[in-house]
Design a protein that fits this description.
The structure holds 2 protein chains of 2 kinds. Chain A is mainly beta. Helices cover about 0% and strands about 50% of the residues of chain A. In chain A, strands 2, 4, 5, 6, 9, 10 and 11 form a 7-stranded mixed beta sheet that branches. A 4-stranded antiparallel beta sheet of chain A has the order 1-3-8-7, with no helix packed on it. The radius of gyration of chain A is 13 Å and the shape is globular. Chain A starts with a strand and ends with a strand. Chain B has no helices and 12 strands. Chain B is mostly beta strands. In chain B, the strands form 3 sheets. In chain B, strands 2, 5, 6, 10, 11 and 12 form a 6-stranded mixed beta sheet that branches. The chains are: A mainly beta, B mainly beta.
Amino acid sequence: EAGVAQSPRYKIIEKRQSVAFWCNPISGHATLYWYQQILGQGPKLLIQFQNNGVVDDSQLPKDRFSAERLKGVDSTLKIQPAKLEDSAVYLCASSLVQTGEQFFGPGTRLTVL
Amino acid sequence: AQSVTQPDIHITVSEGASLELRCNYSYGATPYLFWYVQSPGQGLQLLLKYFSGDTLVQGIKGFEAEFKRSQSSFNLRKPSVHWSDAAEYFCAATTSGTYKYIFGTGTRLKVLA
């Protein structure tokens, strides 16, 4: 069974630039999550999708972050414009059911200069 | 507010010694509880989970955790640590009401040869 795929693995941009991350969850997993993990901290949920609907986006900075999950499969997370404090690892995870085990991708490490 | 607390930021043990990582939660009702492990540069992997029933939960890699309602705790244990267990460990919780996952800040485990 293929795992959660994410790309790119690393990205370096300058502040005020835009960046997009892509995630392809495990086939059949209805729930998809995007997390932000700042160095030395635990993952913080940014947005959670159930199929292609948003379940929770209360911690998503909506003035600069956006996410979509078209057709209820893969998803993109965008930052526009980026700030220095956005430097972090962005993790994507998926689960079969909303309270089940989450399977994580390898993450995208973003550095904003 | 709902929260997950891991009091120990760093723990160092000798190889072969026993291990206990602490996790406390603050929720109105008993949440679903999880322990994940993250190796450097990797995504998170589930070690074990507690939904209900037997309060002693067995997981992968020889780990177990005990749920104690009276102490609002879900501590992770291993009787004999191996050098390959060096990683960061995260406790997480969610509920069937919100489906929102909250992670602790993590405990970084160092294993001495």
